[in-house]
Specification:
It is a single chain. Helix content is about 40%, strand content about 15%. By secondary structure, the protein is of the alpha/beta class. The strands form 4 sheets. A 7-stranded mixed sheet has the order 2-8-7-6-5-3-4, with helices on both faces. A 4-stranded antiparallel sheet has the order 11-12-15-14. A two-stranded parallel sheet has the order 1-13. It is globular, with a radius of gyration of 22 Å. The structure holds pyridoxal-5'-phosphate.
């Protein structure tokens, strides 16, 4: 019998979405005449933009022609796609070398796989609440996690403790699940702290396209010194509706060089290149062409229309929370609204209450960490009419 990776026994929250589905199905079965409104899932609903579809169709045709057929591509990604991303950053005022960009099938894979580059005795700082991938991927390889509390008291934007040393820091901004977004000054403090501690920041910017204030940083590389201490993960999932199409990218600057215990220099860029070349054979040519189209000026203009549709939903939810005096975070630079469960309810009680009273399904904050136990996440990824109707039901319930 093989010895198993028993770290899997330590994984928690396996049942969050299963439990939501179970309770929802039970309710629907008992109440078939009461239609549900689902504002729970973190998945987009609007279809791909025209320019993306054109690129997809055209690339499919190329694959059917012996003159333009493509086999294995470069493991790091096609230059066209990497350059399109680098140009997109430039238009946002951030300089990133196309050579430092690695194309992947999504940010979940990369944020999960990055543990391959690090040893197992690091002090790893992860916020609570958090996107569960950071916690689970570290748990799976037996790493210890040090949690940093994100709470209403710090506006869900925890800052470094300068008296404590850490080696790795996970930051997601704008945040899933809380919707909170760091400003430049706050991220500068994290970068300065990381450099002082020779720590590496693992920065997840999956929601950067939802930032509407030009003063807020959309990339960690908008911060001075970040190339010496940060890896950035991003995704086309929320930016361009690619949750089913699958494409993301990771930026590993060549400046990230550290010393091994034997004194040899090790480059994280070279290591990630080696890791990807060994365990990943590249993102489909068809998808990379569509991704390049996303990052063109016309592509971004089309994607922005979809994002604005979601932002309008977020605004409707946020306005309703304000009107009802329910304390909330996010909604402005994020598709998520993270609200404090009214009347002292805990998150699962709130889930059942909303399901039973107004047939609105959301996500209990408890699924994202201890600090989410009295919070609840709604998303703006639903359609406009349902969002308006859900908020009308909220008004009747909590007025
Ligand atoms: C949705 C999401 C991603 C994107 O994951 P993909 O694998 O690219 O679809 C990454 N990070 C966070 C925090 C997310 O919520």
């Amino acid at each position: 019998m093989p010895k198993l990776n028993e770290n899997f026994l330590k994984l928690q929250n396996n049942y969050l979405f299963a439990e939501i589905a179970h309770r929802t199905a039970a309710y629907t079965e008992a109440n078939p005449d009461k239609p549900l409104i689902r504002l729970g899932i973190g998945d987009v609903t609007l279809p791909l933009s025209d320019i993306v579809l054109q690129a997809l169709h055209q690339s499919v045709d190329e694959m059917g022609n012996s003159g333009s057929f493509k086999g294995y591509g470069p493991e790091q990604g096609y230059e066209k796609t990497r350059t399109a991303i680098s140009d997109y950053y430039k238009r946002n005022g951030v300089s990133v070398d196309a050579d430092d960009i690695f194309i992947s099938d999504g940010a979940k894979s990369d944020t999960g796989n990055i543990t391959d580059l690090f040893g197992h005795d690091n002090i790893i700082l992860i916020p609570d609440p958090v996107y569960p991938v950071y916690v689970d991927s570290n748990t799976m390889c037996g790493n210890q996690i040090t949690y940093i509390s994100a709470t209403a008291e710090n506006d869900f934007l925890p800052m470094p403790d300068h008296n404590q040393h850490v080696d790795l820091i996970y930051i997601c901004s704008p945040n899933n699940p809380t919707g909170a977004c760091y400003n430049k000054k706050q991220l500068q403090e994290w970068v300065d702290y990381a450099i002082a501690n020779e720590a590496v920041i693992l920065f997840d910017s999956a929601y950067e396209a939802f930032i509407s204030d030009p003063e807020l940083p959309r990339s960690i590389y908008a911060i001075e010194g970040a190339k010496k201490c940060a890896i950035e993960f991003c995704s086309l999932s929320k930016t361009a509706g690619f949750t089913g199409t699958r494409c993301g990218y990771t930026i590993v600057p060549k400046e990230l060089v550290f010393r091994a215990s034997n004194g040899e220099e090790m480059s994280l860029h070279a290591m990630w290149n080696r890791r990807q070349s060994t365990k990943y054979n590249g993102t489909a040519y068809i998808i990379q062409n569509a991704a390049a189209a996303v990052f063109s000026e016309e592509g971004m203009a089309q994607c922005r229309k979809n994002i604005q549709y979601y932002q309008r939903n977020a605004q409707i939810i946020a306005n309703t929370m304000t009107e009802l005096g329910i304390r909330f975070y996010g909604g402005l630079h994020s598709p998520y609204i993270w609200f404090e469960c009214p009347n002292g309810m805990d998150a699962w009680t709130c889930f059942d209450y909303l399901l039973n009273q107004i047939q609105v399904v959301g996500t209990p904050g408890a699924g994202f960490g201890e600090n989410g136990k009295n919070f609840f996440r709604l998303t703006s990824f639903g359609n406009y009419e349902n969002t308006v109707e859900a908020m009308n039901r909220f008004r009747k319930l909590f007025c």
